Amino acid sequence: MGVTGPSGPVLDRDEVDRALARLGAEHEAIETSLLALQDHAGRRLLEGAELTGTTKERWETTDASITLLWAYFDAYAGALRSAREIRSRRRWSSREDLVELTELLRGESVTVAGSASATAAAPTMAGTGRLSERFTLAELVERMNELYASSLDMVVAADAVWSALPARIDLLAAELQRTRRLAHSVGVRPGEHPSGDDLERITRALTSLREQVVSDPLAFWSPAQGSSAPGGGRPDTTRYDREARALEEVRREIDAVLTVRQDAEARLVRLRDVLSRADRTLSEARNARGEVLAKIAASEVPAVSGPPTALQEQLATAAEYRRHAQWHRLSPLLESLEEKAEDELLRARESLSAVTAPLAVRAELRGRLDAYRAKVARHGFAEDPLLVERYDAARRMLWSAPCDLRVAEQAVLRYQQAAAEVLVPRVPGHGGPQDRRGES
Q1: Contact indicator for 215, 49 with CB cutoff of 8 Å
Q2: How far is 226 from 196, CA to CA, in rounded Å?
């Protein structure tokens, strides 16, 4: 290495040759990258699209950057060509040649003149007030790498959105059309059924979404957090996913309507059966209430309501919907009726249980009285005077009408107590049963 010049120490011949080899490899790599960017499908689409919003602004900057990139590359190639020409003058470069090569390879020897259109939006010369810049070859490569990365990031992001979303939107739109035809066949139409209105809204939303994706793809791009690689991120499918879920909900509603059309008669038969059972149960409760009032005294018996006439009217309406194939109206009505009919049957059963509760209490007291009588008979005390007296008193109360349950229960309890005393084991030396009628 020779003496120091304006660009530093003068390079010797070996250093010059190594620098030229490295710059030549860089030249080939840069040229390959620029040609790939020039032929990128996303860039061609951006050139021909009617852009709006964020994408339009970004593309104006990126297009200017790509133009400036080629200007940089041409300047870089010219500088490399000049250096090779100087080196090829002589096999053994002179001192003057080496100084010139050192200045060319290391100094600010490259001047880039940009046109107004190329530099107006580019992120390098814009706002500097200059139409040209001077660079070292290393600085020029670094600047080209920066412009290339930002340009490729924008092109790849737009292409990724265009590759993903429009096709998915078109598939969803085709599914939407099939769903609309199916909905129309079962009477689900706009203005007549909420799902018909939903289908119209989804249609408008998908049309608008596709137009926006085509004209402004970058509005639907989510950059990856912390990633510096060009194209790092993914398409934002939030709006698409929302409409896809809405269409799926409508499809489930249409499927429910179709199910109603297929088994409407069977469901109507089941509804009639449930309501008939509820009616019969209420009729049984009303008859039982009369019996309880006649046979049980001093007891509060709840009133029994009449038959569910409102449900019968709704059932008739459902049958009318079926006759006129109004499946979209029949579907929610059947679901509501099935729930109400089961509730009505449960209410009727509870009413019957509440009305017949006094009879159940009387039956329980009768059973308890007879069970204790059988028990004392097994132990040989059936003829005990006190037990006979108390049994007869309890039996008259329980088998007479009207029966006072509170008084009858006390009589049964007295018989139980007497029976318990009789059945207690006798102490040795004491006699057998004694006449205890006076104890009552």
Answers
A1: yes
A2: 45
Task: Return the residue matching tokens 């790849």.
Answer: 156
Longest alpha-carbon distance in the chain: 153
Quote the tokens at residue 333.
């009505």
Q: What is the DSSP string of 282-315?
A: HHHHHHHHHHHHHHEES----------HHHHHHH
What is the pLDDT averaged over residues 215-236?
Answer: 83
Strands (E), 104-169: 110-113, 132-135
Residue the block writes with tokens 């499918």: 237
Instruction: Take residue 373 and report the two structure tokens written for it.
Output: 């009588």
Report in angstroms the alpha-carbon separations of 439 from 351, 386, 426, 436.
44, 8, 19, 5
The whole-angstrom separation of Cα 284 and Cα 345 is: 13
Determine the Cα–Cα distance for residues 145 and 196; give it in Å rounded to an integer: 54
Q: How far is CA 243 from the centre of its chain?
A: 12
Tell the residue number behind the tokens 């009639």, with chain if given.
Answer: 272
pLDDT at residue 220 is higher than 70: yes
How do residues 18-66 score in pLDDT, each as one tens digit?
A: 888 888 888 889 899 999 998 898 899 998 889 999 999 999 999 999 9
**Contact present, 369 and 394 (Cβ < 8 Å):** yes
The predicted model scores a pTM of: 0.57
Token pair recorded at residue 174 = 């085709």
Does the CA dihedral 329-331-335-337 come out positive or negative? positive
Predicted pLDDT at 12: 67
Average pLDDT estimate for 352-366: 81
C-beta neighbour count of 178 within 10 angstroms: 10
The reported pLDDT for the residue numbered 427 is: 42
Domain residues of the chain, as ranges? 4-156, 163-260, 267-355, 359-439
